[in-house]
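Before the break, one more example. Copy the sequence into your notebook; we will annotate it together after we see the structure.
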Amino acid sequence: MTQAKPLSPRDKPGAAVPTSIDATLKLLGDAGYVGERSLATVLFLALKMGRPLLLEGEAGVGKTEIAKVLAQSLGRKLIRLQCYEGLDVGSAVYEWNYAGQMMAIRLAEAGGEVNKDELESNVFSQRYLVKRPLLQALESDLGGAPVLLIDELDRTDEAFEAYLLEVLSDFQVTIPELGTIKAASPPIVILTSNRTREIHDALKRRCLYHWVDYPDATREMQIVHQKVPGIGARLTAELVGFVQAIRKEDLFKSPGVAETLDWASALTELDAVALDPQQVSDTLGVLLKYQDDIAKMQGTRAAELIDAVKTELKHGK
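Here is what the structure looks like once it is written out:
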């Protein structure tokens, strides 16, 4: 097999990567992401060391947003591979434009003499190669090497996870008909997992790791103020207190930050200035996504939590 040339860089430097943990924390903050110093530390190290970063945590805590913020702040192209059960090479890496190849073969045959070696070389060329996210990520553009987001990796099977080892180890892809295509500038790689299954140790060893947890009340209030302009301070404090309390309940799925923001937006649209038991019960479908959880929290239990939150706020706890 011949060794293909690396993909052409074609890139000019984009925004410089942060040179310190504080600069990384500022980069996140300037883009509207309220992050912790521990996150900024591992993100800085991933950028500095050129290592993929695996982010695990419950759904809705902001893992995907980190990759989006990074691409936006650094002026890089964001390439997203959304994982799902049955994801294969044809959907994730590359496939051939079979219709185009057949047309080329028929046109060559119609033209008379056909040189089989030349025809094969022609139809299995870059012209007929359909590039999917992993192959696209090996190409730099004018802003520099892209940010590759491999989202919800735990939804795929172990066979595809094993395929990723070559990509994440050497930032290259082997195409039997063309050879090995290697990135001239390695992409910035962010992987996310909701931990519905364990990621294999071989893949984890190639990554730095960070667990993205639910935010504490102070940080969640900052997030709400950042993302829901115009919301009142009292409503913010009460709804965040309620969400923090509800996460301690025995629910099938606790609300993430995404649900907190949706609920804050919904209550703002309803002109709420404080939590009202009836209004909370009526809007629980914005915050909770399973009927059993909604039924468990409606009525008396919601009213009890609201009273507890308001009492804590009144006494400055």
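The longest strand covers residues 188-193. Confidence is low (pLDDT under 50) at residues 1-12. Try to locate both features in your own notes.
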